Amino acid sequence: MKISTHLVSAPLHTPFVTALRTATHADSLLVEISDGSVSDGSVSGWGEAPQVWKVTGESLAGAQACVEGPIAAALDGLEPDDLTEALRRVQNAAVGNFGAKGAVDVALHDLAARRRGQSLHNFLGSTVDTVATDVTLSVGDADALATAARARVADGFDVLKIKVGTGDARADFERVRQVRAAIGPGPSLRLDANQGWSRRDAVTAIRAMEDAGCDLELVEQPVPAADLEGMAWVTDRVSTPILADESVFGVRDLVAVIRYGAADMVNVKLAKCGGLGPARTLLELAREHGIQTIIGSMMEGPVGVGAAAALVSAYPTSAVNDLDAAWWLREAPVTGGIRYDGALIHLPSAPGLGVTGLTA
Ligand code: MG
Among 2, 101, 161, 269, which one carries the catalytic annotation? Predict the structure, then answer.
């Protein structure tokens, strides 16, 4: 097998604004693993490590060094069809580096599926070829959010996610109330505080929204990631389901959330846990303990989101998933792959992720 990496920067059609940053591009490291067969042309599998300073803290340069260094060394001499052993070696090649591990894990799965002539979702056991997603609204004032919310509903999305936790719980309440008033009772509304509230602010804000009839589907990561006691305190005091995101990277974190009773749900992401293999373990553990699941992604393109969508189709989650990232791209860094139609992601029937190469 031959591993190569490509740094890509894909422009967005609309700036993606959060409390922490304004993104105009999705920057990623793409990993390409070729099986090196020459008789009938070599086949390549693709994976993606997104740039996420504020969640994983891993850089693209670091991901590239990890893929080209310890991971490539661990896979040296291995046959591409020895998938189980290859995946084990990837996870053991380095501590941390979940973005790099996730990209290689996905590329190995993609390559294995392609060599069998199967789509990735069929390879994972799915017969479903569409997956629904929510869409996130960029941070803005109440008027701008209400306008954007109506536009996204017109685009065909019926689950909207609003970023809150921007420092003023009162303003958060007002934004959410106005968005609900703008879209009416039909669409689902979920909030992501990205660790931005104190436990008391979280309970005050969520209860106020409950009392005002905002009809929240869930609230994601209300308090800092390490404060599981605080998150359990919130979960106990509101009726809206609480979703853990930044608190859960891998199995050890999910076990802690379960022990504390810190959340009702967990958001599983390939770049946090290290790929499809670890993600399946998390989904199964959550299910055994009555924790609801969704699968999300970072700001990434059709490779990373396509892999997450293939996983969802094979391992159904509890709620609509959070896979709109590639919808924001004006121009994808690769050709082929998933296609959005409103809130539906169409999985390709072509082998693997359906990606045919880098965009010229
Ligand atoms: Mg989140």
Answer: 269
184-232 confidence digits (pLDDT tens)? 999 999 999 999 999 999 999 999 999 999 999 999 999 999 999 999 9
For residues 239 and 219, what is the distance between their CA atoms, to the nearest angstrom? 10
Residue type, position 105, single letter = D
| Same fold for the pair 2-116 and 123-358 | no
Cα–Cα distance for residue pair 278/291, rounded to 1 Å: 17
Active site residue 161: no
> What are the pLDDT digits (tens) for 319-358?
999 999 999 999 999 999 999 999 999 999 999 999 999 9
What are 203's two structure tokens? 């309970």
The fold adopted by the segment(s) 123-358 is TIM Barrel (3.20.20)
Instruction: Residues 2-116: name the CATH superfamily.
Output: Enolase-like, N-terminal domain (3.30.390.10)
Roughly how many angstroms between the first and final C-alpha of the chain, as a whole number?
24
Tell how far the Cα of 220 is from the centroid of ligand 1, in angstroms.
Answer: 6
Ligand 1: distance of its center to the CA of 117 in Å?
A: 35
Enumerate residues with CB within 5 Å of ligand 1 (an ion): 192, 220, 245
Domain boundaries, given as residue ranges, for the chain = 2-116, 123-358
In angstroms, what is the span from residue 260 Cα to ligand 1's centroid?
Answer: 20
| φ/ψ of residue 97, rounded to 5 | 55, 45
- What is the value of pTM for the model shown? 0.96
Question: So what's the pLDDT on residue 38?
Answer: 60
Catalytic: 272? no
Spacing, Cα 18 to ligand 1 middle (Å)? 11
**Active-site residue among 101, 161, 163, 272?**
163
